[in-house]
Write a structure and sequence with these properties.
Two copies of one chain form a homodimer. By secondary structure, chain A is an alpha/beta fold. The first copy, chain A, contains 20 helices and twelve strands. Chains A and B meet through α8, α9, α10, β11 and β12 of A and α8, α9, α10 and β12 of B.
C-alpha cells in the first residue's frame, strides 16, 4: 500500500522571503488562496519574522490583519508560522509574559501550527513558547535546526529531538535553511529520530534548494519515514528558495509514496505566481542556479540574498565571496551555531566586519552577546580570547543561565510605550508589533491609515533600453529636439539621449 | 565498499545546446579544457548534430577542426559524440557507405565514444553505424530513447536493449532528452536491463533537468546499478539543460557510491562558464525554473527553446502553450515515436501547423515521410487516415523495409558536388560536411577563410536604460562644455555630468 506524504506549501512565507526579499504584497497572494486552500496541503506556511517585519517596514500593511485575512481566505487549511522561540519574531530574547501574550494572540487570530525553533538549538529557549502553544490548544512543532559541524552528529540531533518530544511537541521538524542536508544524512537522521521518538511521532522536513541536492534528500527522508515535506509552487521555487511542489508530487509516482495534491489546482497556483513574479524583478535574487560552495560557507538561502544587497549598498558587492569564506571561521569561534535568524545575521555581519576591517577589530554588539551567552549555549566551546574581547568591549559578564531569566517583566512597560505612540490602537496586537520592532512600529502606526503599498511594478512600464544616439546631431545648435550625449555616471561613460522637459 | 560512479560532462555539447541554442564559440571553451581534461570524467561529450550545424551556420567554424582541437586540448579524456544512427548528423537517412565514411573520419579525427541512437528506436537504423564504430576500434554505445506512452513498457525497452547488446554495443545508454524519466521507472528500467544483459554491461543514464525530478532519478538509477551518469557543470545547468555536476558529486556523499571528480577543478570549470554565460544572454533559454507540464507534452529540453524562438520569429509566441498541448495528439497519430531529433522537430513542426492552420490541413514533407515509414517503424500503429493523406499528398508509397535500403550509393555523387563548391578543400571531411548540411555548407566553404565568429557579447556594452530628461535644464542653449546635472532616473535623483558627444 502506498503511503500518503503530506506537504506544507511555502509560497506565502518562505518562498517569497528567500526569492524576493519578502516583498510580496497581500493583494498578490489573495487570488491564489482558494486554490491553495483546496489543493490538499497539510499546512500553509504564511507568517514569520521576516513577513511581519516586511509588512510594517515596507508594505505599510498590518501583519495581524494579514493573518486574519489568511484565516478567512484559507478556511480549510492549517495555517502555519515560524516562531523563533524566546525571540518570537524579533531579534532579542523576550521576557516570558511577552512570549505568552504573543502566542495567545497569534492563536486567537487564526494560527494553527507553530513551528518553534531556537537558532542555537538551546532547548531552554523554546520551552516557554511550546508551553504557550499547548495551552492555546494549537499544534506545537519542535524544530531541529540542521547544520554541519564536527559536533553535529546524528546522536546529538536525536538527543535534542527527544528533549523536544519530552517537552510535549506534537511533531518534529528538521529545518535545513541552508540546503546542507544531503540524501544519506537525511535518511539516517529521520530513521534515527523515528527509532528514538517512536514512529507515530510526525517528522516534517524543511529544506532549501540552493545546493541542488535536496529534492533527493526529501526522497531519502521519505524513504526513512518522514511524514511531511515542505515545498514551494514551481513558479517561485529553486535558487535560494525551495524544491518545486509539482516536482515533489511527480517524483513519487510509483515509489510506494504519493501526495494527494490536486494537479489542476497546483497548475493554477503556479500560473498565478508566474504572473506575479516579474513585477518584483528588482527584489528577485540574482541566484537562479545552484551553488554547491554553500556546503563550505553554510549560509542559508534567505541570508545570501540579504547579504548580497547589504554589500551592494555599501559598494562592496565584490566582497561577497570573501565574506562567504570568512563565515565558517566566525562560526568556529562562536562554538558552531547553526546559521538561521538571528545567528545567521550575527555571524554573517561579523564576517562582513572581519573582511572589511580586519579580524575581530570591531565586534558587533550582537556578536559580543553571542560570545557571552546572551543568546544561549552553543554545542561547542567558544573561543576564549574572543569571549574576553567581548567582555572587555561591552563591560558585560559572561552568563550560563537561560538568557530570558536575566530579563525583568516587561509587558506593562512595552504596553505603555506602545500606547503612547500616535496611531496605536491600544490592542495587544499593536503592543506586540511594537515589542517586536520598536524602531519600525512608530512610523507604521502613524501611516497605517494610508493603506498598504504594493512594491510590485508593471514590467511593461519599466524604462526601455536607451536607443543608440543619433550620431552627429549633438552640439549643432540649441537643444530643441532629442540629442545624444555621453554621460559620466559613477565613473562609467554611457551614451544617452536627452529631450527637453 | 563504495562504488565509483562515472560521469560524462556535457558542458561542451548538450549543455550549451539546451541552454544557449548551441551558440558557444570554441574560444570560449578552450580555457576550461585543461581542467575538464583533469577533473576525472569518464568522458567529455563535445560533438553532435547541433554543434556541427551551428559551427558552419552561425560560427563560421570548421566542426572537424573543432574536433581536432578538442583532441589536442583533452589528451587524457574520452571524447564522446552523439550520432543519429543512419541519419548521422543530418536530418535524413544516408546510404550505408556515407555512414561508413563518416564514422571512420570522426574516429580518425579523435572521437572515442559514439553514442548511437535512432529517434524511433528502430534497431535497423543503428546497425550500420555501430558496425562502423566497432570496425574503427572505438566504443559503440547503443542508445535507448526513453519516452512515455502506453506501449513503452519496461519489457519493451529491455527487448531493445538486448538487441543492441547482441549487435555488439560496448555499453548502453538510457537517453531521456525530455526529463520524463521519474525515479521509480529509472530504478526499474536499469534493474531490468542489468538483469537481462548482465551486470557487466555498462549502463549510462542521460537525463535533462527540465521537470525538476531527474537528479532523484539519477540517484535511483545508481542504486539500481547504473555505471555512468551525464551532468553539466553548475553554471550552465538546470532549466532545459542538465543536473549540475557538483550537485551529483555532493549528493552521493555517504551513500555507498561516489564520484572521483576533483572538486577544485570543478570549481574552476564552473567559474569559467559562469563568466562566459552572460555574454550569450540573447541566446539563453527563457526557462530557468522547472516545468512539470512536460510530463504531458513530452517535448525535450533542447526542442522547447528552439520552438520558442521559431514561434516568436513568426510572431506567434503566444501559441507556445497550444502547440505543447497538440504535441501528444500528433504523437499518437504517428504511432508514439519518442521525441528526439529529428522526430521531435517533425512532430513539433506538425503540431505548429495543426495549431496555426487546423488539424492536418497541411502535412510537412517530413511528417508525411514519417507516416509512410521513411524514417523507420514506430512502436505503435500509425493512424491510417493520415497515412492515406500522406500518400495522396506526396504520391509516395508506404514502405516497411529499412529506409536506407531504398537509397542508391551516393558517396561519389556527394563527393563530386562538394568538390565543385568554392572553398571546398577536397577532403573527405568537407564532403561529409556537405553531405550533412547541403544548404549551409556552400556558404561556409566560401567564407571559411575569414575565420570563426564569436556571437557572445560583452554585457557591459549593452545599452543602458534611458534616463528621464533633465527637467528644466534642457533646451536652454547649446551644450558646449561638461555640465553637471541632477537627473531623475527611476525616481531616484542622481548627479551626473554631461558632455557633448
Amino acid at each position: 500500500m502506498s503511503k500518503k506524504i503530506d506537504v506544507t506549501e511555502l509560497i506565502l512565507r518562505d518562498a517569497h522571503q528567500s526569492l524576493m526579499a519578502t516583498r510580496m504584497a497581500m493583494e498578490d497572494m489573495v487570488p491564489a488562496c482558494e486554490n491553495i486552500d483546496k489543493a490538499g496541503y497539510w499546512s500553509v506556511e504564511c507568517w514569520g519574522g521576516a513577513t511581519f517585519d516586511s509588512c510594517i517596514r515596507f508594505l505599510n500593511e498590518d501583519p495581524w490583519e494579514r493573518l486574519r485575512q489568511f484565516r478567512k481566505l484559507l478556511p480549510n487549511s492549517r495555517l502555519q508560522m515560524l516562531l523563533r522561540g524566546q525571540n518570537l519574531l524579533g531579534y532579542r530574547h523576550y521576557e516570558d509574559t511577552v512570549v505568552d501574550h504573543f502566542v495567545e494572540k497569534a492563536a486567537s487570530n487564526g494560527m494553527d501550527v507553530f513551528r518553534v525553533f531556537d537558532a542555537l538549538n538551546d532547548i531552554r529557549n523554546v520551552r516557554r513558547s511550546v508551553q504557550a502553544v499547548k495551552r492555546a490548544g494549537k499544534h506545537a512543532q519542535g524544530t531541529i535546526c540542521y547544520t554541519v559541524s564536527p559536533l553535529h552528529t546524528v546522536p546529538a540531533f536525536v538527543e535534542f529531538a527527544e528533549q523536544l518530544v519530552e517537552m510535549g511537541c506534537d511533531s518534529l521538524c528538521i529545518k535545513d535553511m541552508a540546503a546542507l542536508l544531503k540524501p544519506q544524512p537525511a535518511y539516517e537522521l529521520v530513521k534515527a529520530i523515528k527509532a528514538a521518538c517512536g514512529k507515530e511521532m510526525r517528522v516534517h522536513v524543511h529544506v532549501h534548494a540552493t545546493t541542488g541536492v535536496t529534492l533527493v534528500s526529501l526522497m531519502k527522508a521519505i524513504e526513512a519515514g518522514a511524514d511531511c515535506v515542505d515545498t514551494a509552487i514551481s513558479s517561485l521555487s529553486l535558487g535560494p528558495g525551495h524544491n518545486p511542489t509539482e516536482s515533489l508530487a511527480e517524483m513519487l509516482q510509483g515509489t510506494g509514496y504519493h501526495t494527494e495534491l490536486d494537479k489542476e489546482r497546483l497548475r493554477k497556483i503556479k500560473e498565478h505566481f508566474a504572473g506575479v513574479r516579474p513585477r518584483y524583478k528588482e527584489f528577485l535574487s540574482d541566484i537562479t542556479g545552484v551553488e554547491t560552495d554553500i556546503f563550505d560557507s553554510q549560509i542559508p538561502g534567505g541570508m545570501i540574498s540579504n547579504m548580497e544587497s547589504q554589500l551592494k549598498q555599501q559598494g562592496a558587492g565584490d566582497k561577497l565571496k570573501a565574506v562567504l569564506e570568512e563565515v565558517p571561521n566566525v562560526r568556529k569561534v562562536a562554538g558552531y551555531p547553526p546559521l538561521v535568524t538571528p545567528s545567521s545575521q550575527i555571524v554573517g555581519t561579523q564576517a562582513v566586519f572581519n573582511v572589511m576591517m580586519g579580524d575581530y577589530k570591531v565586534l558587533t554588539g550582537e556578536f559580543a552577546d553571542l560570545m557571552l551567552g546572551y543568546y544561549g549555549t552553543t554545542i561547542g566551546p567558544r573561543d576564549q580570547k574572543i569571549v574576553e574581547l567581548a567582555a572587555n568591549q561591552t563591560k558585560k559578564d559572561r552568563i550560563t543561565c537561560r538568557p530570558a531569566d536575566t530579563l525583568k517583566p516587561e509587558w506593562e512597560g512595552l504596553r505603555s510605550m506602545a500606547l503612547a505612540l500616535k496611531g496605536c490602537d491600544g490592542s495587544d496586537e499593536d503592543v506586540l508589533t511594537y515589542a517586536m520592532f520598536p524602531q519600525v512600529a512608530p512610523k507604521f502606526f502613524s501611516t497605517r491609515h494610508e493603506g498598504s503599498k504594493n512594491l510590485g511594478k508593471d514590467p511593461s512600464k519599466a524604462p526601455a533600453p536607451a536607443p543608440a544616439p543619433a550620431s552627429g546631431d549633438a552640439g549643432k545648435g540649441p537643444v530643441q529636439t532629442t540629442v545624444a550625449y555621453e554621460i559620466k555616471l559613477n565613473g562609467k561613460t554611457t551614451k544617452v539621449t536627452v529631450s527637453p522637459a
